[in-house]
Every structure is written in structure tokens, then in C-alpha cells.
Design brief:
The complex is a heterodimer. By secondary structure, chain A is mostly helical. Chain A has a domain at 94-146. Chain A is built from 10 helices and no strands. Chain A starts with a helix and ends with a helix. By secondary structure, chain B is mostly loops. The chains are: A mainly alpha, B little secondary structure. The complex binds potassium ion (K). The site of potassium ion has 6 residues of chain A, from helix 5.
């Protein structure tokens, strides 16, 4: 039954057994093709396994791009489709994670002033000012920008 | 190249599963 399959899925995800988790998602989707949670889990598992192209293919077959706009943008970024990713981010909510990804794409495109301007706006938020990784990235951008 | 973390990937997260309890 679906609740039992979700229990199994939860277990595999907690153990980071993503391939097994995908098999369970496929079982759920076989019973209930429109099950949003199973779809979302499948896409995140594919991303965890770095199967970004397959994740994109899943998105395109579904009608779930809008509800997972950040994840879709990330897959495009991971496939070096930077301009497409920026376009998708423009269409979505400007939340912290989307701004972070946008800044990261500008860094990859060596457009350091854009990265700096986004990072400096995020720096005022406590979750960033305390993050060693975030400060490391900011230093990297300053270094590259000279 | 200076060290630069892929911080964006940290924001990829699973939905909270409603496992039908
Ligand atoms: K978003």
C-alpha cells in the first residue's frame, strides 16, 4: 500500500540509499502517477546521485517545475546551462537560496561584481554572517575580482 | 583558483514525508 511504501521510502532516504529510494518512488508513481511527494523525492534522489540530466527529463515530463523552481534551476546550473538557469531563477521567488544560486552562477561566469552585490546583501542576514563557508566564498570572489 | 563552496546544493532538500500515519 502507499503508506507502507512511504515508510520504506523514508527509511531509504534516512540511510542515503538513493537508488533504492528511487525504486520505491517509481512503485508509488506506478500506483498513483500524480503523487507529488513521490515525484519530488525521486527528483531530489536523482540530484543526490548527480543524475541531473535525468532529473531535468523528469521535470519536463511533469507539471512540477513551478513548485520546484529552485531545484530545476540547480539542475540547469549543474549541467553548465548557466543562462537557462538564470532565466528560470528570474521567473521564481527571490528567496535566499535562489539568490545564493544566482550569485554562484555569476561567479562561474566570472561576473564577480554581480556575485559581490548579491553576497553583500545576504551578508547582513545572521544565517550568513556566521557561516564559514559563505565567508570563504565571499573571500574567493573578492580575490578573483582583485 | 581560490576555494569556493557549492553552497547552493545545501539547499536541495527532501520534502517532509506524510507517510500516512
Ligand atoms: K525559488
Amino acid at each position: 500500500s502507499i503508506p507502507t511504501l512511504f515508510e520504506e521510502l523514508d527509511e531509504y532516504i534516512s540511510k542515503s540509499s538513493f537508488k533504492k529510494a528511487i525504486r520505491v518512488c517509481n512503485k508509488i508513481l506506478g500506483i498513483e502517477a500524480g503523487n507529488v511527494q513521490a515525484f519530488q523525492c525521486k527528483v531530489i534522489c536523482l540530484m543526490q546521485l548527480s543524475n541531473f540530466q535525468e532529473a531535468i527529463d523528469c521535470f519536463k515530463k511533469s507539471k512540477q517545475i513551478e513548485s520546484m523552481s529552485f531545484e530545476y534551476s540547480y539542475c540547469l546550473y549543474a549541467l553548465n546551462k548557466y543562462q537557462e538557469s538564470l532565466k528560470q531563477l528570474e521567473k521564481s521567488q527571490k528567496d535566499n537560496r535562489s539568490l545564493e544560486l544566482e550569485a554562484q552562477i555569476h561567479y562561474k561566469l566570472e561576473d564577480y561584481s554581480k556575485t559581490i552585490s548579491i553576497y553583500e546583501s545576504l551578508l547582513s542576514k545572521p544565517e550568513y554572517s556566521d557561516s564559514v563557508e559563505f565567508i570563504t566564498n565571499l573571500c574567493a570572489v573578492y580575490l578573483e575580482a582583485g | 583558483k581560490p576555494l569556493f563552496f557549492d553552497l547552493a546544493f545545501n539547499n536541495v532538500s527532501f520534502p517532509t514525508l506524510d507517510i500516512g500515519k
